[in-house]
Every structure is written in C-alpha cells, then in structure tokens.
Design brief:
Helices cover about 35% and strands about 20% of the residues. By secondary structure, it is an alpha+beta fold. The model has no long low-confidence stretch (mean pLDDT about 90).
Amino acid sequence: MEDFGIKLRPRDGSLRLDTAKKVTCGEGGKFWYRLSTFRPDAGGAFIVGRYGSYKTGESEKVIVDWTPLKAAERERMQREREAKNERDRIERARIEAEAAMTARELWAIGKAEGHSPYLERKGVSGESCKYMPDGSILIPLIRYDKPRSRALQGVQRVWRNGRKTFTKDCAKAGCAVRLGEVDMHDDAQIIMFAEGYATGLSVRMATVHQVPLYVALDAYNLGLVVEIVHGLYPDHQLLICADDDWKTIHPPNPGRNFAKACAKRVPGCHYVYPVFPPGVARDDGDTDFNDLHRLCGLPAVTRQITGVLDMVRRRPNGR
C-alpha cells in the first residue's frame, strides 16, 4: 500500500480487516482498501484483497504466493470467500436500506444506550443521541423554531471511523441538536453554542453539564442557529464556543470570524475560542475545544470556558 502511494494517517489506526465495505484511508481520505484474512489449517494467516485511489480509480490486488496451500485448503478458501461475499452482499443491502430511510424511520430504530468508538476516541459521553448496533451514532437535526411535529428535519450519522452522513434530502439549514435544557424563565441563564458534536460534549463536561448548549454542526450554519435561539430566548445571554481554524486560509479562519460576526450582529451574544498553551504539540487539525480537551485535559477547557462565563455574567444585562 505504501508503494502504491498510500500514507496512512494516525487516525487510520490499525488496518481493519474483513469489512463489508471499502475502508477510506490515507492523506485527505483519497484512498481505500478492502482486506480479509484466510487462515490455513497449518496456522498463520494470509491477507487478501484490494486497495486503490478514489481520485484516479486505480487499484491493485494483494499479491499472495499460494504455493504452500494444499488443494483441499484452496477449495476451502474459495468456499469461505464465496460465503463472505454473500454475507457482504446482505450487509450492503442492509446499509443501503438504512440509507434510504427517512429521518423518523432511522431515528426510531436507534437505541438510547450503546457504545461508540468515535466518542470513545474523543474522550466524551453522548447526549441527545442514539446508538446503532454497528457502533455508529445518530444525531437528530432539529429546527427548534418549528412545531414539535415538524421539528425533526434529518439525522446525521457518525460512523465508527468518524465519517459523517445525512439522511436523504436533509434540510440542514438552521438545524441543531440541544444538549441540556433551557429554562425560559431564567434570564440569568447563559446558552452556549458549538460547531461540532464532540466539541459541544467537551464544553458540557467542562461546565459539569450545568449550561445548555446547541450544536450547529458547522460554521456556516452557526449564525442561523444563533439567530433562531435568540428569537426563542431574547433575554438570555449567548456564548459561542468557536473553533479556531488557524490553518484555514480560504476563507480565513471561518470558525473565529463567523463567530465574531455573529456576536456583533446578535444582541447579547459573545464568543470564545480555544487557546492552546505554548509548547503543546498542536497539529493543523487541532482547532476546537475537544482538541484542547484531548491534548491538555478537561481542566484546561474548564478554566477557559468558566472564566468567560463569569465575565459574561458580570456584564450589565449581559451586554
């Protein structure tokens, strides 16, 4: 795979074998592989399959020297391969059927409890989500300014490897998922916002789950979500926990700049972004409070968020 030009990223981890679908890998997620194992009676294992490039469409087959295998074992290998292909066909059909489900149908089959390798890697526990048997999670996309019967607009599915997909024809604009409850009668309560789900969970942990937070899913949707929530709770103070897209040039640092523009436009709105201490090995993709959580520990997030919350509370009328 390295000779082919695939440079595995740290997030790729160990190679995943015996999967039903291709596994995306490599820099920029531009490559894939699908590998399986065959174990001879004499012990050991052969790795077989293909790998390739999404960009060029080229692929190569794993070259294996089958000489040591006896004829009977080759026949067994062929039977196992055919059986696996049939299992994979059934699994792909199930995945395609789930992809064709409406948001309500998919949300209905999720479970309130489960496990998610993605959340485990992020060091957070899920809120306001559902779990699927394959380790993926479902996040509801809700328009909180619409009647309850029409509020659910779609579902985001976060797979084990962090890949995110949306239900078909999902109307994401203005949608969010709320973590925690808002007290509409408590004007002193602050409402927070974050772009990403894991970021929001880290911030919630940093505030001991005492401050409600809306996850807007991305920087481009953030402004609309903030405006909707401000319309629902015009007397509440708002705090955007922005990403610091320090390496993004086009447009320049959208996380900080979109949050800053929103804070200027919406009354009672403020923003904060993560500050990584000097000496921390910060990669280009370390941009949000979950990254700060992973690299420096939850107390670092707590100090930064609670400090800003205290400042906002001390401002007259939250302005």
